[in-house]
Amino acid sequence: MNITYDGDRLIFHEISHFSLSQCLCCGQAFRWKPQGNGFYSVVMGYAVYAEQNGQDLTLIGVPESASADFIRYFDLERDYGAIQASYINDPFLTEGICYANGLRVLRQPYFETLISFIISANNNVGRISRIIDTICVNYGEPLDGGFDFPSPETLAALSSDELKTCGAGYRADYIIQTAKKICDGFDLNAVAKMPYEKAREELTGLPGVGLKVADCVALYGMGFLQAFPLDVWMRRVICGVYHYGGKNNNALLDFVQTTFGEHAGIAQQYLFHYARHHKEAVCAR
DNA sequence: ATCCAGGAGCTTT
DNA sequence: AAAGCTCATGGA
Q1: Distance A188 CA to C1 C1' (A)
Q2: CA angle A83, A74, A49 (to 5 degrees)
Q3: Which nucleotides of B are covered by protein (CB under 7 A)?
Q4: Domains of chain A: residue spans and CATH
Q5: Does residue A243 lie within 7 Å of nucleic acid chain C, judged by its CB?
Q6: Measured CA to C1', what is the nucleotide nearest A178?
Q7: What is the H or E stretch that residue A235 is in?
Q8: What is this structure's pTM?
């Protein structure tokens, strides 16, 4: 991969195992919208238009100085070919890898990821996106025609009713209380530097954050690739396809770690994306 | 109308 | 420790 910048377009050339649409439409990110031949969002303080042409990823609205931030965001330096190859003996996962070809696990801003997945609890992807979008439009800073994700201070100052107007429902109080804890010094950057188990334990101390949401923040924000968010879809896959019969969650996660190894979270994302679009294949086995 | 969605938290066994 | 109940909301 090499990088060029012409004053307008920041281009990452010759990225293998990368599909922009798979990365943005697989349920790990909620705020990118299709536009023209690409996608638009406000992320990390930039109003960005992203477009893929072959193995080139073009970003408009981003200065050259932000290239490292976006390499990290899209996880462009990791060898996904090697990770995929390590699962060659798993037929179902290989099927998922083919279906989700080019999917990379993003490393999204911590606070936004945290609040987004608090909203995801007992919710569906379409509604999650709409709620987050409404919160940004109502309370985020305007930026080049879009809206940034609101700061912890902004969300902490909202009333429960204001967030319920955005559709957050009973999660409104979790959002406010968690935002307040961040304002009071709960340091997400410090958590991201802890060992995975410790980071996860710290995150579950936040209101509205259980094991599953903590794993989402650990994986889609902090880049802990062994984190395996265990939701209803993954339960179907592990029990239905991998014939796991236990009921204990921790035992199930142990099974997952031994089955999928250090990149379990990446495997999880392939499986999640595949399962959601092939419900019959998952439930029939 | 009933069930479900990338669950969490509190109460009861 | 483990199972049960409740929490908004909108689409199927």
Answers
A1: 31
A2: 145
A3: 4-9
A4: 2-77 (3.30.310.260), 110-220 (1.10.340.30), 232-283 (1.10.1670)
A5: no
A6: B8
A7: helix A232-236
A8: 0.97
